[in-house]
Amino acid sequence: MKKLIILIFAVVLIYSCEEIISVPDISEDFIVLIAPADDTVLEDTNVTFSWEEIEFADQYQIQVAQPNFANANQVVLDTILGDSVQSFRSFSTVLPPNMYQWRVRGLNDNFQTDYTTQSFKVDTLQSDIDISDQVVTTIAPVNNAEITAGTISFNWEALTNATMYQLQIAYPDFQAPIQIVRDTLITTPLYTTTLESNDYQWRVKAINMSSETAYTTQSLSVIDDMMDLSDQTVEIIAPEDGFETSETMVNLSWQGIEEATLYRIIITDLSDNSVFLEQTVTTTDITIEFVSGMYSWAVRAENDTQNTPYTEQTITIL
Question: Which of 5, 122, 279, 310 has the highest CB neighbour count under 10 A?
C-alpha cells in the first residue's frame, strides 16, 4: 500500500512539472507597437492603442504616463487586457491635449516580456475653433497713456486658440494715418519697440488658421521728457501716523501727483507680517474695512514706466 501511495505521488509530481515546463518562456520576446507611432502628434483626443500579438502571451499590460515614465506627473492608464482571438491587441481611451508615453508588455502564467515604450502628443487643432467673436484685452500701455520717448512694451492677454497676433502702430491714428510705423506678426502677447515723441494709436488682433478677431485699439502719447516719479514722495493726508480707532471702516487719503496714472496701496497685518490687502486705484483715497489689529499701510504713485517710493504709516483698529 505504501509503495502505491509513493507511485501515485510521483506520477502527480511528474505531471505537475510537465505542466509548469509546458508554459512557454516569453521573457525574450519583443512587443511591436503599431499605433500611435513614436513621436506622433494626434489631433483627436480619442486615442486607440494597438500592438502586434506575440505567441504564448495570454494577457497584455498597457500603461500611459504624462509626460513620460521617467518624470511622470501622472500614470493616466494602467490596465491588463485578457485573451483575444485577434492577431493584434488594441485599447481605446480619451486623453486631453498633452505629452504622453505609452508602453505594453506581454504576460502568461509564469513569464513576462519587457515593456516596449513610445511617445506621442495629443494636440487638438486650434485652427478649427472660431475666434472671430472673441476680444483681445490690452494690458499696457493703458488707453491715452503718456510715455517717455524710448523703449516701450506693448502687451495684452493671451487669447486661447490664437496662434499669432498682428500688431500695428499708426501716427497719429488709424482714421487719418500719416504713417503706419509698425506692422508685425508675433506669436507671443508682448512686443517691444522704440518710438519718437508723437501721438499714436496702436491696435492688436488675434489670428488662427481659420479666423481672426477684430482689432482692439488704444491711443498713447510719447513725450520727450516726463517728470521722474522716483524723486517724488506721496504725502499722506489722513489718518495721521499711529492713528487708533474702534471703527472698522477707515478712509485712507493722500495728495495726488501730477504725472501719476494710479496709486498702489499695500496693507500689512503686523501680527504676522502678512499682506492684508494690495490694490491699485486711480483716485487719491480708498476706504478699507479692517478687523481688529495693528497694521502698516503704504502708498506709492505709478505711471506706465515709473513709480515713487512707498510712504508708510501705521494704524491700529481697537
Answer: 122
87 has a pLDDT exceeding 50: no
Specify whether the CB–CB gap between 104 and 62 falls below 8 A: yes
Q: Do 229-317 and 138-223 have the same topology in CATH?
A: yes
Q: How far apart are CA 210 and CA 258, in angstroms?
A: 46
Q: To which H or E segment does residue 181 belong?
A: strand 179-186
H-run or E-run covering 8: helix 2-21
As a whole number of angstroms, the distance between CA 220 and CA 146 comes to: 6
Q: Specify the CATH number for 138-223; select among 1.10.150.120, 2.60.40.10, 3.30.420.40, 3.30.200.20.
A: 2.60.40.10
The DSSP code for 270 is T
Name residues whose C-beta falls within 8 Å of residue 238's C-beta, 6 or more positions apart in sequence: 251, 252, 253
For residue 159, give the nearest of 202, 200, 217, 215 by alpha carbon.
Answer: 215
**Spatial distance between the Cα atoms of 99 and 41, rounded to a whole number of angstroms:** 9
Average pLDDT over residues 155-167: 90
- Model pTM above 0.70: no
The domain 22-124 having CATH identifier 3.40.50.170: the answer here is no
Instruction: Indicate whether 59 pLDDT > 80.
Output: yes
Domain borders along the chain are: 22-124, 138-223, 229-317
